[in-house]
Predict the 3D structure of the following.
Amino acid sequence: MDITIEPAASNPGLHATIAGWLWNEWGTPQNRGLYTSLVAHCRKDRIPAIYLAFVNGQPAGTVGLLRTDLLSRQEFTPWMAVLFVLPEFRRRGIAAALQSHAMGEARRLGFSEIFLNTKMTGFYERGGWVFLETDVDDHGDSIRIYRKSL
């Protein structure tokens, strides 16, 4: 299995597909435009950036680096976000490859740590992420904030 990761900004023909994946995973009827705008404004060499994983040339997943991913925690930056792998490609190491790529890009951009918020437990802790605190996301749901040194 050949996994390659490229900036979504280098693949404009896939922007609508990526935005659709993200909206289907996390969206609400009110915020579809948010995902379209996020993907359209992603950059190659600075944040915000979205990276696209390909498996044997087929688009398989995404990860992003954002300045912030939680309005109440603007002091933390950058955030790893929109980590998504299509169901048919899961359990093949693609999420780990995307995480590693995002962390490498954050390090290349001069950051010494990275943050994320999630409702998941265990998955990120097994990967060395350190739990910081709980908070409430923009939808009023309880989430966990994690940090990882780069």
Observations:
- The longest strand covers residues 58-66.
- The domain at 3-111 is CATH 3.40.630.30 (Aminopeptidase).
